[in-house]
Specification:
- The chain contains 7 helices and 10 strands.
- By secondary structure, the protein is of the alpha/beta class.
- The chain has 2 domains: 2-117, Tetrapyrrole methylase, N-terminal domain (Cobalt-precorrin-4 Transmethylase, domain 1, 3-Layer(aba) Sandwich); 122-214, Tetrapyrrole methylase, C-terminal domain (Methyltransferase, Cobalt-precorrin-4 Transmethylase, Domain 2, 2-Layer Sandwich), CATH 3.30.950.
- It has a 5-stranded parallel beta sheet with strand order 3-2-4-1-5, sandwiched between helices.
- Helix 3 (61-79) packs across helix 4 (98-108).
- The chain is globular, with a radius of gyration of 21 Å.
- The model has no long low-confidence stretch (mean pLDDT 90).
- Pfam families: TP_methylase (PF00590).
């Protein structure tokens, strides 16, 4: 049988893909790593199909490895009888907890088949929410910025896990970046915030990201504007 890693999208239930919805409706059990992903899944499957997995709130590597090994065992046992799914917000292959499960299954349960169902990632959802155009030829770097970190270098960056926006903003501004922030974008849980003021997202929240662009960056965009003489002769 197969373990499906299903991307749920950024958090709004109607942004799950058609394929993801079909998998959730056909598998025997759906495992969720957290409260938010579970709330999306409930829109598509009954509570009786949801499997419980325990993930401790700790950074202790030994405890985390033990938790993932136990989770892998539970999911593999479920897949021995029927197809099952493990769901995650965003896309399973982009900054996702699903990577931990897949590595655990590969190591301890190599006979289990794993298939990924892509989801709408914050990498793409942020562009719509913040009104940012990522034009053809753009170089874009993905970085983490937890606890006030402020990576620099690339002309454009998407920063995940911005948990101290004020400190991050001070450093990026000093390095010559214009920064915009988005919190809980396309999520049904919590308040969505889009702002250039870091104090509006000063309260720590794991689901905060930022778009940083070098100040005064030149753009060479294709355009549909034509001068009057060219229009008359067309």
């Amino acid at each position: 049988m197969t373990v499906y890693g299903v991307g749920l999208g950024p958090g709004q239930a109607d942004l799950i893909t058609v394929r993801g919805k079909r998998v959730l409706e056909t598998v025997d059990t759906v495992y969720s790593p957290g409260r938010l992903s579970r709330s999306v899944v409930r829109e598509y499957v009954p509570e009786s199909k949801l499997g419980d997995l325990d993930f401790p709130m700790t950074r202790d590597p030994d405890k985390l490895r033990a938790a993932w090994r136990e989770a892998g065992r539970a999911v593999a046992d479920g897949a021995a009888e029927d197809d099952v799914a493990f769901v995650t917000l965003g896309d399973p292959n982009v900054y996702s907890t699903f990577g931990h499960l897949r590595r655990t299954l590969d190591t301890f349960h190599p006979a289990v088949d794993v298939e990924v169902v892509p989801g709408v990632s914050a990498v793409t959802a942020f562009a719509t929410a913040l009104g940012v155009e990522i034009e053809a030829g753009t170089g874009l770097s993905l970085r983490e910025a937890a606890d006030g970190a402020a990576p620099t270098g690339p002309e454009r960056m998407i920063l995940f896990k911005v948990t101290d926006a004020v400190a991050t903003d001070e450093k990026l501004t000093a390095a010559g970046y214009d920064v915009r922030y988005g919190r809980r974008l396309f999520m049904e849980q919590g308040e969505t915030v889009v702002t250039s003021d870091p104090t509006e997202v000063a309260e720590r929240d794991y689901y905060t990201l930022a778009y940083a662009e070098k100040h005064g960056l030149d753009r060479d965009l294709a355009t549909a504007d034509f001068d009057a003489e060219t229009e008359r002769s067309a």
